[in-house]
Amino acid sequence: MTTQDSFVQIREVGLRDGLQMVRTILTSAQKLDWCRCMVDAGVTDIEVTSFVPPKVVPQFADAADVASGALKIDGLHAAALVPNLKGAQRAFEVGLGKVHFVLSASNEHNLKNVRRSTAESVEDFARIVAARDESDAPGVRGIELGAGIATAFGCTIAGKVDERMVLDLVDTLLEAGADEITIADTVGYANPGQVRALMRRVCAMAGSVPVACHFHDTRGLGLANVVAALDAGVRRFDASLGGLGGCPFAPNATGNINTEDTVFLLESEGMHTGVEIGRLLEIREKIAAWLPGEPFTGAIARAGLPITFEPAQAVAA
Ligand code: COA
Ligand code: ZN
């Protein structure tokens, strides 16, 4: 096994996917404190905010402040979500090293989420790539542009999402210049068989372009889906501290897969994450106190680590 095979990148999305659904608006200082603590715990990839209009998600009215504050945190690779060109331009202005664009495989979901068809969002992505590549502003041409496909395993509005359609989108986004592909089960419909089959094909198509998965644990299959995606070759996973998160168009959706439990699973499988679970549990306590009444999930937080637990060792190259 090489380092590449046994290292898994955990990307914290609690500050974005988690916070977009909660009632309490955190201050920018609290959000940056959360980021700092996560980096200390070994989570160095964080989606720190979302560049959406403040009237759509008031929680992210401070997106530019949080993103520029995040850039000053040593060791943090900060990324932000953007739903359109305007969001990408705002992220470029701050100077983030990584921007995640999202569109939905389900046209119906895309219309509800970003008020345009999936085909129009694909065009938006091409415009974002062009805006980056043609920019004269310092550093902008070096920004990594990830493309995420939401509702890739099914949709609460449209129902079944055809695998062929997802693969065609992957192809189009790679062709357009995506530096990473994220496949998302936005509404918690995926099962391991479906994940294994789709992710094998996506990894084969992507070649050297990294592939990530974004799972929600709505129906209890989140971690089983992680194992299936690992089998297929995926080595990047979104997760959220305490399992915060949801989707405005997925009634009763629970949050993302829980960061603490995901790290526990991966380390138990011999996959090195560089993350200290004990530290995550401490951070979780602090964030839960900031967000009264919000549901925090997680088996490790409830039951603790087994006394037999041993973190995976980093494998030398
Ligand atoms: N950030 C800030 N302002 C933005 C913006 C962005 N990313 N995108 C558009 N705007 C502004 C426009 O400048 C315009 O302002 P004006 O009225 O002062 O001229 C206004 O918002 C409307 O612009 P328009 O392009 O017509 O957007 P829209 O109303 O069709 O909304 C989205 C499109 C994508 C901005 C909106 O649907 C959205 O934010 N969706 C994301 C929802 C989300 O966060 N989902 C969960 C994560 S996947
Ligand atoms: Zn999500």
Instruction: Count the beta strands.
Output: 8
Domains counted in the coordinates: how many? 1
Order of helices and strands: HEHHEHEHEHHEHEHEHEHHH
Structural class assignment: alpha/beta
CATH architecture: Alpha-Beta Barrel
Low-confidence stretches: none
Fourth-level CATH superfamily: Aldolase class I
* Spatial separation of the terminal alpha carbons: 9 Å
Helical segment tally? 13
CATH topology: TIM Barrel
Query: Which ligands appear in the coordinates?
Result: coenzyme A, zinc ion
Cα Rg: 18 Å
- Sheet-strand content, in percent, reads 5-15%
User: What global shape is seen?
Assistant: globular
CATH class descriptor: Alpha Beta
Structure description:
The longest helix has 16 residues, at about 120-135. The chain is an alpha/beta fold and about 325 residues long. Helices cover about 40% and strands about 15% of the residues. The relative contact order is 0.15. An eight-stranded parallel barrel has the order 1-2-3-4-5-6-7-8, surrounded by nine helices. It is built from 13 helices and eight strands. The mean pLDDT is about 95. The chain has one domain: TIM Barrel.
Supply the key terms:
317 residues; alpha/beta; TIM Barrel; eight-stranded parallel β-barrel; 8 strands; 42% helix; 14% strand; globular; binds coenzyme A; binds zinc ion
Sequence-ordered SSE layout with sheet pairings:
Layout: H1 3-6, E1 9-12, H2 14-18, H3 28-40, E2 45-50, H4 63-70, E3 77-82, H5 85-94, E4 98-104, H6 107-114, H7 118-133, E5 144-150, H8 163-176, E6 180-185, H9 192-206, E7 211-215, H10 222-232, E8 236-239, H11 259-268, H12 277-290, H13 299-303
Parallel strand pairs: 1-2, 1-8, 2-3, 3-4, 4-5, 5-6, 6-7, 7-8
The protein binds coenzyme A and zinc ion (ZN).
